[in-house]
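Progress report, Aim 2. The chain analyzed during this reporting quarter is listed below.
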Amino acid sequence: MRRIHLLWGLAMMAAPSLAQNYEQFPLENELTHRYLTEFTYDTIPDLHVSYIMDYYNTATTYRKDQPAPVTLNWDTDLGADEYRIVISENPALTDSIEYIQSKDSTVKTVFNLIPGRTYYYSIFSKSVQNGEFLIKNSAFQTTGMLRMIYAEGTHNVRDMGGWPGLGGHPIKYGQIYRGARLIKEKSSEVLITQEGRKALRDIGIRCEIDLRSSSDVTSSVSALADKVNGQWDVEFYHFPNSVNARMYHYDANESNIQEIQTIINCLKKGIPVYYHCSMGADRTGTLGFLIGALLGMSAGDLAKDYELTTFCEPYTGEPGFARLRNYEGKKGAPDNYSDPKEYMFAPLIDKINPGTGQNSLQRKIYAFLKNGVNGVKISEADLDWFIDYMVDYRIVKKVNIDKSRLTLKVGDTQQLSASFTPADATVQQVIWDTNDSSVATVSETGLVTAVGTGSTYVKAIVDDLQKTVRVTVEAGTDGIGLIGPEKEEGQAYNLAGYESDKDGLYILDGKKYLSK
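Predicted structure tokens for the chain:
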């Protein structure tokens, strides 16, 4: 075994010269990857079909709610007392995660890395006699989208990042995590193990939001917290949600607004957040739905995220309560908590869809949070900051057109121009449309052409908002009249649709008319 002493300097800091030959590790377990990629839930109304149980009923050798591992290996150093593994996204190995491995094993299984990244790692041999030596320096890439988290002692933990948000921009990883309880209900028994606790701290979590009822929570200190200089280093918030805040009972709930405000406040301080109830299913699912919809996740992706909880192995080791997007013949969801299959996603969509006056699901949730409940609301500034921070996207707040009304004669044209607030909004594309193309058409650039008498509306659509202009089209009255067997002599007529021949006659349906 060739050893490189630390004092040799820069060798340990240099990036491996692997060119494009990085080893690749998928982070989604195989079954989850299939569920995410083999089909698409296309529309909100199609809520009578669900596929999650087809996947759940597939036997696996691994827990379905956990990620696939990255496995690192190296040659044995007979002089080692232990090995130190350092992993980072930076070739200089700053902001790294470290592991200590027994000398008896030269294989390390690593979880909870971020999909779509390149990681650099170094492995050191440590001994009392020889000190520490670099024995391997390499790199690998991770693939996939969904970031499931393995934390021993809890379950159903997922990073909310990776899903496509507004404009297709991915939601940022490493900021908001959802999952299950860390401490047993009505007890001080800590369920999360020391290894699990280290895993959640290693991914940066420094705030815990507990959504369980008041009787379930016995401590005001997070199970993840350490005391540093007399202060707990993980913030803890408790928003007691009873069963009535579960998804299928969902009504406008000021507690959900307070929870999202707390998450925004933490992220502004650079503090990643973990929120949970007991299983990380219903109360957690409701909050996850609101956050995901606000950030622009499609209804189909929200349904998949919701259904992934079905992969959870609960406390008994039996299959978890199935979380299906469809009704399965039940328009209303059951009130019986022990029902093995609860249908909550569809009723939630039913309750959110009507009544906000907005076009998209994202706009509806934005309006709900901005308008608030019982005076509890989130400012537009905070909502806009949150969206910009999490999906690198500035939404359009208002659309303007340079004219409010148009009156044209048949054959006339008029150029319209649209603007938006804020001026630096992410999406700048204007889609022009008309309610009645037999009256007026509009080009992709906003050029209106009067076609036939009547009135219609021309609209500019930007980022799911729109502004309309009323267009009135009158007959051409420029003094031209038509003389013919079926026309009243001396009357001005609309000449649209007539063809003119070389003698100045106007032809329609094979009949010739003389202009006057």
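The domain at 4-23+67-143 is CATH 2.60.40.10 (Immunoglobulin-like). The chain has a mean pLDDT of 83. These observations will guide the mutagenesis work planned for the next reporting period.
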